[in-house]
Amino acid sequence: SSLVQRGRGGRGLAGTLCPNAELGSGERLDDVARGGFLLLHRGAPPAGAALASDPVAPGVRVVDVSADPVLARWLDRCDVALVRPDATVAVAGTAREVVAFLADLR
Fold it and tell me: What is the pTM of this model?
């Protein structure tokens, strides 16, 4: 699919399903997504977090998953992951790779 970028960073997360873990707030990840895209990261927002306000990706929710051991361990394989509304990872790797992926969708 053109909405999955394989072969770059993320060690194989692209094209796989993101775990629907419970976040520190008590909400499950799919409840936070509300049918939209998610940019998952650990700790301080990555430089690419500005893409949440990018007109290419309106409504992308930026979520720090460091408080959830399941998601933090899962994301340990990359810096960030962009998750589609169907919970499939579109691209995972560095913030720069995610921003480039979104720019390619224009």
Answer: 0.79
